[in-house]
Design brief:
This protein is of the alpha/beta class. The chain is about 35% helix and about 20% strand. Strand 2 and strand 3 form a beta hairpin. The structure holds N-(iminomethyl)-L-glutamic acid and fe (iii) ion (FE). The site of N-(iminomethyl)-L-glutamic acid has 13 residues, from helix 2.
């Protein structure tokens, strides 16, 4: 066993409810790490000895970001669509099919290399846990190889065969739902922890979404959902009813959606990079928090609606555009993401948890929003 003492932490975000509410901060703190797990947390002056030391020199330390929503297994570029969104063209689900064509044509090696590149980008920006979805294959072979590739990088793999109906099933959407819940599910379930469905205009309706998520749950997969991105969606309430871990986007919410999220156990995951990149209105995350819902922030990194891998950027947007306090945003990007993945071993700095830590090149996490676009990750542990 080797131990490392991280000392001289000016400000430590623990997110530990035993210490306090929300970010549960400690000043002049230290953390001891033993074989990848946290074995001690407290005041620097009282820290035990260890085999090696890292001096944080007064910097702020936070739990590594938990990015609970990404689509990293794809090929190709859609910067032309982004350009069009910036000059007024509305984002629509149909663009997904473009990436499907390019992804199907790509080799496993090329898809894995692109995924590795994006995962490395994320890590350099402080992300230590990432969920990765399939969803650009939309055939049994291409969904299952997408999940195999995602599984090289994370245990948080999500089967999203129900992203959109692919071209060849345009005239037979019911046949596609049958495939997604039949042969494709058989091939994908062993490679996935989660099942997801895009329940919105141009994708899947509420009945299809229920059929798909229930089929996945019957195979032992946890449910998550894309809903309310393009307009109001019954999907938010369905996600809560089915006990989904998370419902993501939540851009358009009615009173009944907010009530359902506030009273259920489903996390509301907001993806502010999407609104930035599509010029849609931002979700009313303030209202969700004030109503008592649990909020997560994720990147949604994907080639169509939001091609950022940066959680610090998403935090800055959540603070500036969605009126979260910096503490609320940092909590949502760490502990909130962990809750959205039913994980209690990450997103918190406490004894026995994974030692996923980020030393910021700043005295406080407020700088993540105060200094947008500046690389503030000093070191990822
Ligand atoms: O989360 N909304 C559905 N899926 C992605 C967008 C995918 C794409 O446009 O390629 C999202 O925004
Ligand atoms: Fe998404």
């Amino acid at each position: 066993m080797t131990s490392t003492l991280i000392e001289g932490i000016g400000l430590l975000v623990t997110n530990d409810p035993e210490i306090g509410p929300l970010t549960a901060e400690l000043n002049n703190a230290a953390v001891v790490v033993e074989d990848g797990l946290i074995s001690w947390v407290g005041e620097s002056s009282a820290a035990p000895d260890a085999d090696s030391r890292i001096d944080a020199e007064g910097r702020c330390v936070i739990p590594g970001f938990v990015d609970s929503h990404s689509h990293l297994v794809f090929a190709g570029d859609r910067s032309d669509e982004f350009e069009a969104h910036m000059t007024g063209q509305k984002y629509a689900a149909g663009g997904i099919r473009r990436t499907v064509g390019l992804t199907r044509a790509a080799s496993d090696a090329d898809l894995a290399a692109n995924t590795a590149h994006l995962v490395a980008e994320m890590r350099a920006q402080g992300t230590t846990t990432v969920e990765i979805k399939s969803g650009y294959g939309l055939s049994t072979i291409d969904e299952s190889r997408s999940l195999a590739i995602a599984g090289q990088f994370t245990d948080e793999t999500t089967y999203l065969g129900a992203h959109v109906v692919p071209e060849e099933f345009s005239d037979d959407p019911a046949g596609y739902v049958e495939l997604v819940t039949g042969e494709m599910l058989d091939a994908c379930a062993p490679r996935a922890r989660w099942i997801d469905v895009f329940c919105d205009d141009g994708a899947f309706d509420i009945d299809q979404a229920r059929t798909i998520l229930e089929a996945g749950q019957a195979r032992g997969l946890g449910a998550r959902m894309h809903a309310g991105q393009l307009g109001p969606s019954e999907g938010v309430k369905l996600a809560v009813e089915l006990g989904a871990a998370s419902v993501d986007h939540c851009t358009f919410l009615g009173d009944d959606d907010v009530d359902a999220l506030a009273s259920g156990s489903t996390v509301a995951t907001v993806l502010p990079g999407v609104e930035f990149s599509t010029r849609q209105p931002y979700p009313d995350a303030r209202r969700l928090i004030d109503a008592g819902a649990t909020l997560a922030i994720a990147s949604d990194c994907n080639p169509g609606s939001c091609f950022t891998s940066s959680m610090p950027f998403c935090i800055a947007l959540a603070v500036r555009e969605m009126h979260l306090s910096p503490a609320e945003a940092v909590w949502a990007a760490t502990a909130g993401g962990a809750k959205a993945l039913w994980r209690d071993d990450v997103g918190v700095v406490a004894v026995g948890k994974k030692a996923d830590l980020v030393i910021l090149d700043a005295p406080s996490y407020v700088h993540l929003a105060y200094r947008p676009g500046v690389p503030l990750i000093h070191r990822v542990i």
